[in-house]
Structures are given as C-alpha cells and as structure tokens.
Amino acid sequence: MNPGKAIAALGAPVDIDVSKVEPGQLLLAEWKKKPVWILHRKDWMLKTLSEPGLLKRLKDAASQANQQPAPAYVNGNYRALKPHMFIAVALCTHAQCIPDYRPAPHTVTQWWYGGFHCPCHGSMYDFSARVIEGSPAPLNMPVPPYYWVSDTVVRVGEGSPSGADKSWTPSIW
Ligand code: FES
User: Fold this and answer.
1) Which residue among 66, 80, 129, 141 is least packed, with the fewest CB closer than 10 Å?
2) From the first residue on, what is the mean pLDDT of each consecutive set of 10 residues in the chain (173 residues)?
3) Which option is the CATH number for 18-156: 2.102.10.10, 3.90.1150.10, 1.10.357.10, 3.40.50.150?
C-alpha cells in the first residue's frame, strides 16, 4: 500500500473529482476502507423521492436516525447537500453487503421507483438510500461527513474545512 492509501485507510479525508460523472451514473470511491457512492441523480430520480407511494413505504423517511452527521445533510427527501449529487457509504445496514444500483422503475417490484437493491437478503433502498419497509435492513444507509471543495470536487471524511464531524460515526455502517 502506498503512503497516501495507508493514510486514507486510517480515515483521512479523500477528495473525489465528480466532473466526469454523467447524470444517472454511479461512481464508486473509497474512504476508511469503505465503499462510497457518488450518484449523479437525474431530475426524474429526485422527483421519485417525494412520491407519496414511496414515502409511505419508508422506515425512516425523515432521516431521523443517526445515519448522517447533521440535519444539513438531510435536506428534505434528498439526504444531500446538493440534491443532484448523492453521496453515501455503500453498505447495506443489515449485514454490510454492497447493494446493486437498480435505477429502472418496476424492475425489483411492480411499484419499484428505482434505487438500490441488496443481493444478499433483498433489502431495498430508494435513490436517497432510505430503507424500504419489508427489508431486513433496519436503517438508511449512512451518509458520510463531506463538503464541496469546489463545484466538482467533494471532500469525504470531514464536514467543513475546520474538520467538523471528522469523528462522527453512524449507528450502523
Ligand atoms: S446484507 Fe443487505 S439485505 Fe442482508
């Protein structure tokens, strides 16, 4: 392991360039040896997040559990500081498998709005990684601390240049 990677594994923040992530694309990065997603959400994906038919199926629609560092990361149904750029630790809260990206509606179930589906035991999440009722996973997937260094570079691992939220951990990774 090179020194930069060794430091990142210990939890140092990582800068991720998202300039080439097209709308609808999912980028996989790494922080603290954990997989991190950056999903560039399209307008129609954002719209699904406030569909009554989806909201009534969510275990924690308002993101009240300790699965993001601060209320600012909740931002309504978006769970993101910038609605189009969603960032999450890509671990199912049941037994930490990496869920599959399943954006196409009606593919997992008839009512499926698009989101993430865990291949291990079937947990389902929406495009904000909020867990859906009937899933074995108890909580929404974690949103890590982060802030935008520029329009296209996000620093994952701390919530501001002062290092805020650096030591925050969710209830379940
Ligand atoms: S690990 Fe995802 S449903 Fe069990």
Assistant:
1) 66
2) 54 94 98 97 98 98 97 96 98 98 98 98 98 98 98 97 92 94
3) 2.102.10.10
